[in-house]
Specification:
Layout: H1 7-13, H2 17-39, H3 45-52, H4 56-59, H5 61-84, H6 86-105, H7 110-135, H8 144-172, H9 177-180, H10 182-196, H11 210-228, H12 230-233, H13 238-260, H14 274-304, H15 309-316, H16 318-334, H17 339-360, H18 367-394, H19 402-430, H20 434-458, H21 464-469, E1 470-473, E2 476-479
Antiparallel strand pairs: 1-2
Helix pairs in contact: 2-7, 2-8, 2-10, 5-6, 5-7, 5-11, 5-19, 6-7, 6-10, 7-19, 8-15, 8-16, 8-18, 11-13, 11-19, 14-15, 14-18, 14-19, 14-20, 16-18, 17-18, 17-20, 19-20
Length: 484
Amino acid sequence: MGVESGEADWAEAGLDPRRARLVLALTSVGFFITALDFTIVNVAFREIQTELAGDAHLLSWTLSGYAIAFAAGLLTAGRMADAYGRKRTFLVGNVVFGLASLACGLSTSVTMLVGARVVQAIGAALMVPTATALVLPEFPVARRAHVFGIAAVLGSIAAALGPVLGGVLTTQWGWRWIFLINLPINAATVLGGARLLHESRDPTTRRPDFLGAALAIGSVGLLTLAIVQLNEWGWRSALELVVVVSALVLGVAFVLRCRATPDPVLDLSLLRLRFVSSTNASAVLWAMGFYSMYFSNVGWLQEIWGYSAQRSGLLYLPSPIAATFASIVLVPRLRPLRVERTVAAGTATVAVCAVAFASAAGVENTYVATFFPLVLVTGLAIGCVIPTLSSATNAYLPANRFAMGSALYTTGRQVGAALGLAIVGTLQARSPGVDGYRQSYWFVAGAMSIAALIMLTSYREPTARDLAASEIRRGGITERPATG
């Protein structure tokens, strides 16, 4: 899987590198198929609408409903994993995802398809943070950047392959197979996971805080709904304002609940650790820019230069391929550098490429001269940033906070992605054609620049004294002043 096996690191931690790679391979399947299902549906819209005779607006909720349910369920899923067991939660998530995929493939109406997609997203929410919590303890701290790198690159490749694979499956076997293809993958993951994975849980957690969970789901779900529906409802519509205010009220109630209960859904004291707060804030901005750039690049190939969805996906593949190379080959060589400098340099590179995209944008097809080299450089930067940023967020957390830390990070990225896509969607709707895409690229450059600034000014990598001074207590992490 591309993970280095320095004997000293493994021996010192008392870990088995062969077993670690097997666990990583197994859990990576979850990252891949959940990311794939974000983009694989797009190319089949016309065929689904024709066969199911559904309303186009309702059909769009196969994407929106998935995004909202996934974002809303992440924090709760992480805490459930801590309470009931990470292995059990991961396997249940795979079963739910697989059964929901079967329901999608057998749908007889758009309403049934949308409902099955929501359930599918719940399964995905159960899988992602628990996969991180299961695999990280198998690796020494120094090797965990590789884990995040592989997961992130798999997500990028899956997102890029979605339109291509969706187009092939829809053309050859019909749209239902874009969902049914998940069944053997989930079945193999469940069978392999039952034999390979070790069960673990947080012994200080007696049961999830169901009230806090309800507040978290309501707040994140309503916020994501407001973002997803932004272009349709409008910035100043009464419905948009009501949903946003409701999300904020529930969010405040959630924070108060987390402060009051001994077993909170989110341990707020995690945010007092600067490496957690700064990387999560940067990740939100990074996601806004990253997904907006992907959306704009693929849209540019299709709408401005007239390529098909399948060919656009193929022409965009150099970016995830470059990201894979950077994650596996370059990131280990960047380890001696400070984390904030690596992330800042990578995000600044993406910002510069976005400015170059905006400056070079035109109706004339210049794929070889401009688009190809820019997506190649962007891919290299992405492959360096994502594993480094993800690792900096979670790698130093104690084992009983991996699921919660992963859920927090992934929730922020999902909300950031939804907000970024809503903003560029608005920009492109108000200025159709080349101008809208130029504005989108400038937005990407701004988001990436702020992400770089946050890391440079706020991030502080924990020292050995910081880690020794932080201990897990019931209710969270308490930082004691270091002495000596």
